[in-house]
Specification:
It is built from 4 helices and 2 strands, in the order ααββαα. The protein is an alpha+beta fold. The protein folds into 2 domains: 44 residues, no CATH class; 31 residues, no CATH class. A two-stranded antiparallel sheet has the order 1-2. The chain is elongated. The mean pLDDT is 88.
Length: 88
């Protein structure tokens, strides 16, 4: 703690704009569902490996039926209505 108060914290927005984060390649763009999004890159950076994200994870909504149906107990009719209204 310098000068009696803790240092400030970077928000994600701050990190994405910071020249040091950019220079070190701390974010990478990946295709998620047809849309390119920036995500945190692999850390640590190693000389002999690419450290690239090969698979960003399942498609968005891949587990909706499990969550809304099995976990929350919503019926198919309610889930369909939520999808039509673009709530989910």
């Amino acid at each position: 703690m310098r000068h009696g108060f803790p240092p400030g914290l970077f928000s994600v927005e701050d990190m994405m704009k910071d020249e040091h984060y950019q220079a070190r390649g701390m974010f990478e763009s990946v295709d998620i569902g047809g849309e390119w999004l920036k995500i945190p890159a692999t850390v640590p950076k190693l000389a002999k490996t690419s450290g690239k994200t090969v698979w960003p994870g399942p498609d968005l909504g891949a587990f909706n039926a499990d969550v809304y149906g099995d976990l929350l107990g919503l019926t198919e009719a309610v889930i369909t209505e939520l999808q039509k209204s673009k709530v989910i």
